[in-house]
Amino acid sequence: MLEIxxxxxxxxxxxxxxxxxxxxxxxxxxxxxxxADILADIDSPxxxxxxxxxxxxxxxxxxxxxxxxxVIEEVAAGxxxxxxxxxxxxxxxxxxxxxxxxxxxxxxxxxxxxDAGAVRVIDSGVKPGQWVYARGHxxxxxxxxxxxxxxxNAAAFGVLASAGKTAVVAYPFPxxxxxxxxxxxxEANTRPKAGQIRNSNGxxxxxxxxxxxxxxxxxxxxxxDFAITKSLLGEALDVSDxxxxxxxxxxxxxxxxxxxxxxxxxxxxxxxxxxKPGKPLLFGTGPxxxxxxxxxxxxxxxxxxxxxxxxxxxxxxxxxxxxxxxTISLPLAAPLAEANDRPTYRPxxxxxxxxxxxVQPLDWTGAPDLVGMQPADALLVLPAxxxxxxxGTLAEVVLL
Length: 400
Ligand code: AMP
Ligand code: MG
What we know:
By secondary structure, the chain is α+β, with helices and mostly antiparallel strands. It has helices at residues 4-13, 154-162, 201-211, 226-239, 257-263, 299-317, 370-373; strands spanning 21-24, 33-34, 38-39, 49-50, 54-57, 67-75, 89-93, 105-108, 112-115, 118-121, 132-133, 144-146, 167-171, 175-181, 185-186, 197-198, 215-222, 242-246, 267-272, 280-285, 291-295, 327-331, 339-340, 344-353, 356-361, 378-382, 385-386, 394-399.
């Protein structure tokens, strides 16, 4: 049985980023990771532009209080000035419009009064460059505006558009095949008969995959039958970079997954991890380097196993530099009174306390309890043994 850190290291040792692809910049690329630097093809802004509605002026003209300037034209965003601003002159200008030649500052309209073709500037401290966004201030032609390794977040879409990009070279989202096992399972559209339960792991793991940066493909329920399980897992291996199989990975007579994986040419690197929930946790690599995670059947265990081991792997395949998960230290919002035989990840919520964020342990009855896990936005990390602690004690927290 491996310790968590050793198991993680073993998983990460087998992870490398997937081959890059050309990705069209539709919102479907949100969360992909850039595989090449992005250079600006133009200056941004492409011209000196006004940051305020007001008047483009020569700062030197406004040195005395209440300078009166002749207004020579009006320029709105999208228009182009036709007249240079000379001494004693101003151009009526609006936010986003190009600054006319000759002008070096903008006086906001709140500091000016218009008066029959002239403007009185009620601001004696006008400085050159005031309310002017200089050409190339944000990016210059040839600048690296986003470097390889950057996840494409919402702001990156805007930056990429500014740089004239409609497609990029990026790491693909890893393809993740999801198989669940168990004679007792029926899908959500079926009312369970005697001895049956509904399959909650399938939909949950597909959703976790999406959130973790993978493309899920659900292959269905494998009965606890060697041939059926082999056929479904074989199909999953054919179409996936990562295979998640939930249930059937323990040591019971009907836990066929380890044997089936061996028959499919998967090398199993470990089968158990000293973690709660979720001790039976298998990791292997397929003939084409596919990563295979055998997660426990109990839903809360499968959930935690995915977050601790599969999600980091999916991230590395997808080109992320950091596998995660992010761990921080927070004071407990309530006392803890429990003892565990293994290091434990239990559901918790971040709550705003009087002096900052704290972590609130949630009611939870253990591995089969997904309803108790569901509200969690964090996992509270407890060491093996006596984990009693008072409110305010600093605790390690994994952010989900
Ligand atoms: P196993 O790991 O196959 O021994 O399953 C452990 C427990 O998890 C059993 O009580 C199963 O019925 C339950 N379980 C297995 N797979 C699922 C699933 N897909 N959805 C909900 N519960 C499951
Ligand atoms: Mg089972």
